[in-house]
Specification:
The protein is built from 3 helices and 11 strands, in the order βββαββαββββαββ. A 6-stranded mixed beta barrel has the order 3-4-9-5-8-7. It has a 3-stranded antiparallel sheet with strand order 1-11-10. The longest helix is centred in the first third of the chain and has 8 residues. It is globular. The protein starts with a strand and ends in an 11-residue tail after the last strand. The N terminus is likely disordered.
């Protein structure tokens, strides 16, 4: 479990690692030395009211990830905008990893971790205690029918 930094009941910060998943796969296949994988640790703001992963434009550029189109975004204050999306973001948090598309936000300094990321990695966000924890610490649990 991670004790996170923050003061808004539904939003708090955790450290995450993001990497270019194409590089990660090449490294696993022995085609690229692991030290050449484009990756970085950044602050991720967990927001249970947000939907997707959002990363700063500077992070997308540093990782060298490719565009996969665009998305319409709606901000908390009601404004809307069109933003680019990138693919193949390998995100790691609390020892769990998965691959995501991400919305690219030009003026952000931190990542935004929304419900899709939390669900995929099977995390429970507790805003009142500012904690992010796995639902089952041994493994990801998927609900299927």
């Amino acid at each position: 479990m991670i004790q996170a930094k923050g003061n808004d009941m539904g939003r708090f910060s955790v450290e995450i690692e993001v990497a270019n998943n194409v590089d990660v796969q090449k490294s696993l296949d022995g085609e690229l030395p692991s030290e050449n994988v484009r990756r970085m640790s950044i602050r991720g703001v967990v927001d249970t009211g947000a939907t997707r992963l959002v990363i700063p434009e500077s992070v997308a550029e540093r990782l060298g990830v490719r565009s996969v189109g665009s998305a319409s975004v709606r901000y908390a204050d009601g404004r809307t905008a069109q933003r680019g999306m990138v693919g193949n973001i390998h995100l790691t948090c609390l020892g769990r990893s998965s691959i995501f598309n991400a919305i690219v936000e030009p003026d952000r300094e931190s990542a935004l971790i929304g419900a899709i990321v939390l669900e995929d990695l099977d995390f429970v966000a507790d805003g009142s205690s500012q904690r992010l924890s796995p639902r089952d610490p041994r493994q990801i649990v998927s609900e299927i029918e």
